[in-house]
What we know:
The protein is of the alpha/beta class and 291 residues long. The chain has three domains: 5-84 and 160-237, Rossmann fold (3-Layer(aba) Sandwich), CATH 3.40.50.300; 98-156, no CATH class; 249-290, no CATH class. It is 29% helix and 27% strand. It has eight helices and 14 strands. A six-stranded mixed sheet has the order 7-8-9-3-10-11, with helices on both faces. A five-stranded antiparallel sheet has the order 2-1-4-5-6, with helices on one face. The structure holds adenosine-5'-triphosphate and magnesium ion.
Amino acid sequence: MSASLDVRDLRKQFAAGRPAVDGVSFHVPAGEIVVLLGPSGCGKTTTLRCIAGLEHPTAGRVSIGGRLMSAPLDGVQVPPRLRNIGMVFQSYAVWPHMTVRQNVAYPLRHRRAPRAEIERKTGDVLALVGLTEFAERPVVSLSGGQMQRVALARSLVYQPQLLLLDEPLSNLDAQLRLRLRDDLRRIIKQTGVTALYVTHDQAEAVVLGDRIGVMRDGKLLQMAPADEIYNRPADLFVANFTGASNLLAGRVLARGATGERAARQGWNSAGRQSLHGSCRRPPLPGHADDL
Ligand SMILES: Nc1ncnc2c1ncn2[C@@H]1O[C@H](COP(=O)(O)OP(=O)(O)OP(=O)(O)O)[C@@H](O)[C@H]1O
Ligand SMILES: [Mg+2]
């Protein structure tokens, strides 16, 4: 069963420097894919590791499926193995001495599942990721993209309630990356698992995410569907980070009751003039018309 994820005022302060995660709050309903997008060092991995329980947060609360998993100020820290989470990392992290099938079956064997169940679930998930014909091959004889499929299958085989993925495509070449990117969304959606996906690649975020959360310096600046992030960015950083931008200096003169329409005064090459409404940006990167 996939579960919702709730993160409230999450904060992680390492021994030195500014907080790696600084008051991050968001909610992911069951079955949704959310992508955390942001530049290197903005706190994406640390957020993911706090949710997995691999990192102890300094403050805040993490709940999965309504169950409190981390709440340091209340002394709650459920260990990672009891959170029923699947994780896929940038490094494939497969067992090199095992076959594809043995790798994928491992989490079920570790949980002492009955033999028939192991065979059925392993077969199902290998088919899901398109590796049935490679099942008996040593895992080290596979390509990078195939190995990442093994890692994905291994993290899905025990039907986790939440799947966390940290830049799983960044070790792959550009072409493979595009192919696996499209497959990943299909596979995740087919299982129905709730997923949190970390990347610094905006096209990947647009293709994969139902919603995208843009991070900077440990803070979550905006979380919304891709078209909203793109057409109505919360600030200049979000606008610049999520695509090519035309920036016009201006001043808000009036705002509607809902804040949806604003009259702006700006300047262009013809001199000072008023602009009304909002400009449309080019198509979203990663959308079909961009490929
Ligand atoms: N174990 C640690 N000890 C001290 N500081 C850390 C530790 N892990 C991360 N940091 C710091 O926390 C900040 C956020 O790091 P994090 O790895 O979460 O960034 P990121 O967004 O995943 O970056 P990247 O895209 O490069 O993977 C960085 O400034 C980093 O140096
Ligand atoms: Mg990272």
